[in-house]
Amino acid sequence: MNSATLVGSLIFAAVLVVVIAVLVQLMMRGWQRRARRQEELIGGLPEVPDEVGTAIATTRGLYCGCTMAPAWNERITAGDLGYRSKAVLTRYPAGILLERVRAKPIWIPRESTTAIRMERGIAGKVVARIGILAIRWRLPSGVEIDTGFRANHRDEYAEWLQEAA
Fold this sequence. Notes:
alpha+beta, 2 helices
């Protein structure tokens, strides 16, 4: 390889690195703008009550994220709602508690829950078969969102769907 080819290759590589860095920066800026816009719309999440009662059902799995209802692919990025993580979903008489790894728990009061159903995809997470538990609920601000959860074992979904009916 001669020196002109080497210099041209290095210049091309440098330009490529700069373009990739600019694209990543623009993506991050868009994510942050969306988060600010959604924080105003969503407001605060309900606090976990001191007394929740005895657990009715518990399922381990993956928290897939929250979306604005009814758009299954419009992920909520406000706070830590946009990050997937391992989680435990527990139903209590007063509501549903979603405890996530390295994130704040999400409390869904029973009176706020409007539907629990099975979906094929939510928040960019799509599975081959219908395998995501989608919980539609109303926030204190009045906005409806869907919270997605994929259980480690599919046979545990029946318990959640029976109790929703």
